[in-house]
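Before a colleague's protein record goes any further, I have to sign it off. My question to you is simply how this chain folds and whether the tokens agree. I do not need a full report, just your reasoning and any doubts. This is what I was given:
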Amino acid sequence: MNKVRKLIAAGTAVASVAGMLGTASWAQAEPAPVKNVVLVHGAFADGSGWHGVYDELTGRGYRVTIVQNPLTSLADDVGATQRVLARQDGPTILVGHSYGGTVITQAGVDPKVAGLVYVSALAPDVGESTGEQFAEIPAPPDFVIEEQPDGFGFVNLDKFKMSFAGDTTDAEAAFLRDSQVPLNMSIFDTKVTQAAWKTKPSWAVVATQDEAIDPKLLRQTAARIGATTQEIEGSHVTFLTQPKLVADVIDRAAQGIRS
């Protein structure tokens, strides 16, 4: 009888240890929550346009940081993004608007980046440049960039609102127009050497009234990178005019990675 009791006790102990090991294994496999978001602006703009998205996400408990790209070269912009990523304390959603999509494509291989969100954005492949993405579907005709003698470009003043910010007020569009950050035009010819979307889950916002990047190109790009896509009625600057909807996509990306 004592021998039977000993066998039962031994079996119970083994089962208990196995249960604890199983629980520990499950806990280790459970993904960490994504609470960091890094926002990357595109050409002819700065990070201030993200203010509405910033307010939405911080109000939901996210730690949000905004990159200020110098727009002097792709390497400089990727470097600016990498410096911000280095300051994050855990898994991060990396978000890029327009040309900022090229930046996050190159910078997003950083191990802290858990997922990518492309907002009216480009997403080149390895060996492809920003400009080459317009080969089959060019930019709409009203989106006119005027290159200056020093090689930097501005969006045409007369066509700025209709092409870049069609759903903003006249006052908002005028401010964006007159606060443009010039882009080194050589950036359009610089090829990326890494494509983070090949190994990181991606989401895409397609602005249905975009007059800077044809929505057909945005849809084609989203399909090529296998992104979960959300269409939003708005201009090229939906992150400015529809901050809640854009924040919703970023929120879903973070929650999706968690689950």
Remarks:
- The chain has nine helices and nine strands.
